[in-house]
């Protein structure tokens, strides 16, 4: 399958947007998903439905996008206003690869309780992918209690393609990899090359089309190089919203610390007849050989009887 022929879309039936007031849909006990509700009644049922999709196992991913907690740059934009921020303040070196502020640290720490509750309830998670900026790594540390000496049982990898909108704003410029590795040695930085940030440009801010293209690159990278199905992606508001656009989801910029869950499939890999769940009751090919033989015999006898009696 060529990269140009590969497209991605979100699948319905797993998470409902703004479904808290929808009749018949259960709200999870925790508030991990602010604007989404899991539709299957339990994580066990959720996993069963995923495994029942008429799609090859390597063509579906469950992504839990998490926007980083509030950083010093977010507070500065609120203080100065977006116009002043974009025009001048955002270009100051004081906000280079901005860290979380006290409010962000408190928020992410609080959210970790909800995350722990869902994981204990069976929420599947195979791997954590994190944008290689300081605030996203700090958020992942707090959300998943990764800070040493705690040892995570889930691998954590930095991934360059999940960065925020590139260019101009110094908060979105990555520090050298060596510096990040020294500060966060428990993160796998092997995907981040070279040492210096060559993606960020001081005078060009990534356009909507460009970040959408990067989202598709991110999805291709995830589907081709990450073998796991259930992935947390700790990233940024602009990037997550762009992914939502690309996947055909309701488009909005998530709040700091918000989790946006989605089931993603490569559309070219979908079963052309049934791209949702395999329903055994509706598919004769799912019958056991013995049952199928009995059905054939019964039908044959009925046809013979009807023929003999002129029916």
From TrEMBL:
Listed GO MF terms: phosphatase activity
This protein's name: Phosphoglycerate mutase
GO terms for cellular component: cytoplasm
Lineage: Eukaryota, Sar, Stramenopiles, Oomycota, Saprolegniomycetes
CDD domains reported for this sequence: HP_PGM_like
InterPro entries recorded: His_Pase_superF_clade-1, His_PPase_superfam, PGM_Phosphatase
Organism: Aphanomyces astaci
Pfam family, one: His_Phos_1
SMART domains: PGAM
Source organism superkingdom: Eukaryota
């Amino acid at each position: 399958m060529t990269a140009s022929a590969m497209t991605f879309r979100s699948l319905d039936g797993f998470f409902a947007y703004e479904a808290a007031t929808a009749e018949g849909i259960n709200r999870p006990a925790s508030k991990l998903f602010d604007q989404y509700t899991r539709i299957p009644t339990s994580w066990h049922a959720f996993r069963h439905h995923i495994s029942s999709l008429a799609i090859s196992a390597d063509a579906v991913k469950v992504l839990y996008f998490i926007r980083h907690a509030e950083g010093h740059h977010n507070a500065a934009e609120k203080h100065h206003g977006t116009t002043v921020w974009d025009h001048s303040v955002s270009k100051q070196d004081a906000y280079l690869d901005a860290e979380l502020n006290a409010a962000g640290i408190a928020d992410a720490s609080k959210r970790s309780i909800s995350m722990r509750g869902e994981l204990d309830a069976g929420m599947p998670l195979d791997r954590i992918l994190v944008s290689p900026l300081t605030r996203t790594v700090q958020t992942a540390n707090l959300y998943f209690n990764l800070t040493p000496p705690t040892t995570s049982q889930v691998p954590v990898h930095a991934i360059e393609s999940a960065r925020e909108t590139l260019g101009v704003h110094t908060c979105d410029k990555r520090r050298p990899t060596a510096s990040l590795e020294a500060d966060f040695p428990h993160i796998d930085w092997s995907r981040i090359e070279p040492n210096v940030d060559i993606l960020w440009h001081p005078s060009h801010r990534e356009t909507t089309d460009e970040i959408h293209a990067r989202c598709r690159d991110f999805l291709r990278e995830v589907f081709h190089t990450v073998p796991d199905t259930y992935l947390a992606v700790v990233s940024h508001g602009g990037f997550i919203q762009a992914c939502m656009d690309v996947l055909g989801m309701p488009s909005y910029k998530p709040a700091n610390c918000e989790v946006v869950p989605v089931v993603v499939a490569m559309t070219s890999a979908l079963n052309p007849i049934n791209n949702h769940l395999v329903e055994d009751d509706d598919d004769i090919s799912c019958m056991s050989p013995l049952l199928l033989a009995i059905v054939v015999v019964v039908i044959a006898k009925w046809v013979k009887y009807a023929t003999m009696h002129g029916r």
